[in-house]
Amino acid sequence: MEPDWAHLLPELVSIISKKISIIKEYVNLRAVCKPWRETLTPRPLHLPHQVPWLMLPRGSPDDFRKNGIDDSYITFYDLSRSTIHRFELPFLSGKYICGSSHGWLILEHDYRLSLLNPITRTSIKLPSFSDVSTNLVIGYKRKRSDSFNEKRRYKRCIRKVILSSNPSEPGCVVVARFKSLGSLLYYCRIGDSSWTKLRADVGQNPALSPMWDFIFQNNLVFTMNFKGEVTIYDLENLSVKTFPSRLMLNNACYNLVQGVGEFGGPLVVKHSVDSEKTSFSVYEWVNNGEPKWCQVKNIGKQVLFINLFKSLPVLSSANLQLENWQGNQICYHAWRPMTSEYFQIDINCVNLESRKDVENIHSPTDEFPRKSGATLWLTPSLI
């Protein structure tokens, strides 16, 4: 007789689950049968940090609506296994994806943000921001063929959003930057009914020094402007401090990334393209009496996953320590034109100290229309 795996002792099923280190395999294990699903927790804590998935380009809700295409699907490229994961998520329909943080997607729709975990399909609605500014709503000029009663097209209001922690944990803070409000930031906590503006530093003039990027680090919000100046917001005591910087931005682009270095400050990754070659420099924010940016060439066992951009940043990057990966690396993706209408995505990895490319990094083979939306890294999470 063939064995009935559904009657396997729960203790043995639990032991098997501890041998699994990849989220997708754990999800498949729980899907074997009902007894196994009842035995295994849906939120395992033993899984190591996961290699981020790359969300492949997709169109905007307006494009999907115009072409009559279902926009409830989303596709990820699993870098660790060179495989594609496709999810049908009805909650995604009609919404803009404006970032990811702690394994959750940040969605925008009708003057409201929502959080969605694509693995667990859990969603969280955040307060409406329709009353944050009267300048958020931007109409568009109708063509004569448009119906007079047609609803105005919704245009995105959010430039970037970050989370302080996993939103399922108590005290999670959401910080958002609006497109029409320059360098001002607003925040809310899960369960709040409205957004609160972060207090600006005395003498700070956002118009003279517009913000470049911002990030959470050690429960503090760090922002950096075009001069390299750093402003630190403490949401507990509502204090704010600004520090000068000798970091020369020049014409390069920068990403702020959470750091785990010796001084516990954030990292800034400078990247520039010269003769079709992307070069990187990494600086750590050191505050040991004289706060400043210090260049580092070794970030230990960490791997930085960077979203490259040519204008103001929209999406967050990730800093992880991964099993079976050599450290001190920067992983990034670039768009490679194939024809005048289509492009492919190249995923590259470079050693920060030797400046040499890491081999055996596979890229997706799909081709995407040039009008497709942005890509982003998502670190899969079951929490």
TrEMBL record:
InterPro entries: F-box_BR-signaling, KIB1-4_b-propeller. Residues 76-333 form the KIB1-4 beta-propeller domain. Pfam families: Beta-prop_KIB1-4. It comes from the Eukaryota. This is KIB1-4 beta-propeller domain-containing protein. The lineage of its organism: Eukaryota, Viridiplantae, Streptophyta, Embryophyta, Tracheophyta.
